[in-house]
Amino acid sequence: MLRFDVISIFGEMFSAITAQGISAKALDKGLYELAVWNPRDFTHDRHRTIDDRPYGGGPGMLMMYEPLRDTFKAINQQQPEQPNHTIYLSPQGQPLTQQRVAELATLPRITLLCGRYEGVDERVIENFVDEEIAIGDFVVSGGELPAMMLMDAVIRLQPGALGHQDSARQDSFSDGLLDCPHYTRPEVVDGKAVPPVLMSGNHAHIAKWRYEQQRQRTQARRPDLLNN
Ligand SMILES: CN(C)c1ccccc1CNc1ccc(C(N)=O)cn1
């Protein structure tokens, strides 16, 4: 069973994936387990300090080394037998792709470090982080939402997470093309009809049309995805 250990000062945010939807059902089915660790629990001062000012000056605060080190130690004491892979979500990371998600989905254990403030002391990354990942080229206020997106993408690839028909469909995604258009009832609405080929019952024609649509859309919207 896949285990996630998450380091975050805002652990309650993760109810966004544990309370509803496919990720909640997968948790109930025992397809993964999740533990959230708060670095504040690994401080020793009265104010439970986990941030401090940056050397060299500059705006904002950084997450300090020692509380994070002690959090990593506690996590690794709990699961010494399982090999661990630690990911830091940051704008400086490698862009996440579906191919990388599929590789991560085969791991038994993933630790996710969620940065806040202006990030973490670089020595944390050097000593404890295996991989730095960005879920896109933009900045948000913390690593928690990026972590939840990575987790959701990995969870839905776990066997049993999707109904059979969905898992068949998501395979069409992993052929590196954008998805084709989709339609459902009614057949005509506000003067717009469903493409007749989809009403034909000719499954070979339907498959050909859908693939053609995928290729046209990818060429038009994301030519960078072609020639892979
Ligand atoms: C607070 N910031 C700027 C920060 C700085 C350093 C690390 C983490 C953070 C947390 N923010 C993040 C995290 C990830 C992504 C992403 N694209 O995956 C975007 N923002």
Question: What descriptive keywords fit this protein?
Answer:
single chain, about 230 residues, alpha/beta, Alpha/beta knot, Trp Operon Repressor, Chain A, 2 domains, five-stranded parallel sheet, 8 helices, elongated, binds 6-{[2-(dimethylamino)benzyl]amino}pyridine-3-carboxamide
Integer count of domains: 2
Tell me the quaternary state.
single chain
Spans of at least 5 consecutive residues with low confidence: none
Number of helices: 8
CATH class of the largest domain: Alpha Beta
Largest sheet data: 5 strands, parallel
Distance between the amino and carboxyl termini: 32 Å
Associated small molecules: 6-{[2-(dimethylamino)benzyl]amino}pyridine-3-carboxamide
Strands, total number: 9
Q: Average pLDDT value? A: 95
Function: Specifically methylates guanosine-37 in various tRNAs.
GO biological process, one term: tRNA N1-guanine methylation
GO molecular function, one term: tRNA (guanine(37)-N1)-methyltransferase activity
Catalytic activity: guanosine(37) in tRNA + S-adenosyl-L-methionine = N(1)-methylguanosine(37) in tRNA + S-adenosyl-L-homocysteine + H(+)
Structural commentary:
- With 228 residues, the protein is of the alpha/beta class.
- It has two domains: 2-157, Alpha/beta knot (3-Layer(aba) Sandwich); 172-225, Orthogonal Bundle (Trp Operon Repressor, Chain A).
- Helix content is 36%, strand content 18%.
- It contains eight helices and nine strands.
- Strands 2-1-6-5-7 form a five-stranded parallel beta sheet, with helices on both faces.
- Helix 4 links the parallel strand 5 and strand 6.
- The two termini are 32 Å apart.
- The mean pLDDT is 95.
- This is tRNA (guanine-N(1)-)-methyltransferase.
- Homodimer.
- It is found in: Cytoplasm.
